[in-house]
Here is the input.
Amino acid sequence: MTDGRRTGPMRWMKGMMLKHMPLMITCAEFESFILAYLEDELPARERAVFDFHLKICRECRDYLAAYRRTVEVGKKTFEDPAAAVPDAVPEDLIKAVLAARRT
Amino acid sequence: MVESLLKTAPAAEGRDAEEDELIDGVVAGSESHAERLVRTHIGWMRAVAFRLLRDDGLADDCVQEALLNAFQKIGSFERRSRLKTWLHRITVNQALMKLRAMKRLNEQPIDPLMPEFDENACRIEAPWPRLASTEEIVERESVRALVLSKIGELPDNYRIVLMLRDIEELETAEVAELLEISESNVKVRLHRARSALKKLLEPLLRGEAT
Ligand SMILES: [Zn+2]
Here is the structure.
């Protein structure tokens, strides 16, 4: 039904509501609070406003869920030893370091 | 720069006698202690350098420089942190110097990967009928490789902030100091890097990837 890009009266009304009603923030403002929210740096009032936007805005809810998943996936991917370099350190590198130290 | 970071590092919990002996030996000029230090730490240092530089040859150069740097300075290492923490900072700093010398930390555009909003500041985001779990994404080797290559597609000046904060787990203040940018700039770059990566990983996250 909605492809997320649809412009129309409903989207327009949502935009006006978020922009003008008390205790509401626009999606663009929501965006700028995300990092502070996730790092638990938002004062209680801002946090409540952020949480309320999350309740009423499908787009931001979906976006934040995918954003959080992205961070998790990134961290988990690097926990895999194969993501690092081959674990056998070449002996000549070790020798080169020790030789350079002597000079 | 690295020294000033270490001053703010929390005191190490309970010194490790073996580590103290190793450091004392290196400071006294013992060849066998130096070799032990290299053999103990070079593996993970190389992994850190490779994660940041994405090139085997550069990573090896970086590790060599970092270790020589460490040998030069170890006499003034105050031992308020673990040796590993100290070497980690030196390695990261050396990698950043290489990136900087290659102009890879210069400002690069990331706009095409940023989230979109309509004229009323409402987010444009296609519905997500399904969000793949972290486990199902990372369980396959080929998919993990794809994630790594997508991270590699991020512009270096954003990628490096994501790596230092999310993967190397440095504090915002440390990253700001190492990159010589403000803390708020670190936060902005971290957020943009994660948003851009979300965009790049979308097919995977939607469970559509092959
Ligand atoms: Zn929203």
